[in-house]
Amino acid sequence: LGTSTPGHPENTTTGGVEVTTGPLGQGVSNAVGLALAEKHLAARFNKNDCTLVNHRTFCIMGDGCAMEGISNEAASLASHWKLNKLTLIYDANHTTIDGHTSLALSEDVEARFRALGWNTIRVECLYDSLNSFQEALEQAIMETQRPTFIQVESLIGHPSKKEGTSKAHHGTFEKDDVEEIKRKAKWSDKEPFHVIPMVYQEFQKQAEYGMSLDEEWNSMMEIYKKKYPIEACEFHQLLEGRLPSHWEDVLPRWTDSDPMDSTRGYSEKCLNSLARVLPGLIGGSADLAGSNKVHLKNFDDFRAFESPWGRNIHYGVREHAMAGISNGLALHGSGLIPFAATFLIFTDYMKNSMRLSSLSHAGVIYICTHDSIGLGEDGPTHQPVEQLAGLRAIPNMLVFRPANGNETAASYKVAISHRNQPSVIALSRQKVESNLAGTSKVGVEKGGYVISDNSNEVPDLILIGTGSELCLCEGAAQKLREEGRKVRVVSLVCWRLFDQQPQEYREAVLPCNVEKRLSVEAGSPLGWREYVGTKGHIMSVQTFGASGSYIDVFKKYGFTVESIIEKAHSLLQ
């Protein structure tokens, strides 16, 4: 417990670990993200007489990684993007936990990568001579058009009794087997964890070589500053992870006179405003840029040859790889702020990578539109119900469901500010008011806040809403107040932020002595009991949705002002 070398390496625990890659295939997509960052930044900042960005990315994968779909998605993009500085080393020992790979794998993996467009090399005689592997690496470095896949035929557990078997994949080796391995390696007289002096010497040489490279780079940077001061300033800002002063001032502000739009529409305006002042903002969608409204209008698409400096990334229909690649972009250490967009329902395709965003402290912004049964005609296959509950359950993940334009802008402010924490911004397809009275950016930063209250201190009833349902809560509250009721309306836009507030603040918003509470959200009821209490009521969706206009679907499931008033009456009685 507490080791710096846990079972699966974590970038936040062990120095020198760039990304957390435990689940198989994730590292491949992360490597593609790292290589993508290099190609993009090199195109933006390198000059004919000054090269600032010029590194290679190496990734080791196993048979399990070859089977996971995310590796194929990511490899397809790496080839399409011509990431020639990416080298993938495949440890082909043909063994998985259950046994030989022949149990479930029969294709030629090298041929598959060749078909994807990779430069492929096979190393057969690793144990006879390491030169064959060195030659393969040298060939990879010479490649100028394609990423390189090196398949290394190996024996797991060599040279133990478990050699070539799945038993060598996990567990420990018997004492007599360890002694025999040490005898074969002429290591019998060495204590456990002994490191011979030559290894220290070689690492010292590499450290000194690295320091000399660092000095060369710093000298080049000084020349660059003098020749290209504007680019140098922007580059340093990115490397230091600094946000420009007053960057949040560009976020739009909406008034009551502004026309109604969907929150994905408000998001589009926020994203494009931010792109003008945040040089690190880069991202795209899984073939839904138009629907998600995430295209950066004044910037090029990222294209391998035509415009590698472009900040609009087209991932195609590859949600899982998109999230894994975004983690690589975020953890590259160059100040990039990646966003990844899709429908909220399709976060299920990329959940594992999103979880790793949180575990890795990767500040990816997930823009998830079509956030409820309110999307309408696409029907239950596309209407999210349980997705918000699942995402809110991920530790360290900020999940926002803004109700209007100003809450959307505030959500972006918080998401951009939290560079070591991923965010999900769940957005509507249907139109909502641009500025619901009482909503505020300061309130969003606290996760939950009072938007209206006609009681002096203690209301009869508290209505709690998120997203498009918040305006329904306010509409119901106004009618209940006309009946003489004291009603408070609370926006609970981000649960995690609200839970992090001091007890005094949370008590001020949701006082314990007000037990009559009604939550309204067109999604799963899971988690809401904590906020409405044992005597409150939860208006939610507990089945799959239905195909139809969003107004009819909302009415079918009770998300109307009239239904909220009816539930409120039953609580108040």
Rg, rounded, reads: 27 Å
Strand content: 5-15%
Broad structural category = alpha/beta
Provide the helix percentage. Answer: 25-40%
Query: Could you tell me how far the N terminus lies from the C terminus, measured between alpha carbons in angstroms?
Result: 54 Å
Number of helices, counting only DSSP H or I runs of 4 residues or more: 21
Low-confidence runs of at least 5 consecutive residues: none
Please count the beta strands (DSSP E, at least 2 residues each).
Answer: 19
Describe what you observe in this structure:
- This protein has 21 helices and 19 strands.
- With 573 residues, it is of the alpha/beta class.
- The strands form five sheets. Strands 9-8-10-11-13-12 form a six-stranded parallel β-sheet, with helices on both faces. A five-stranded mixed β-sheet has the order 15-17-16-18-19. Strands 1-2-6-5 form a four-stranded parallel β-sheet, sandwiched between helices.
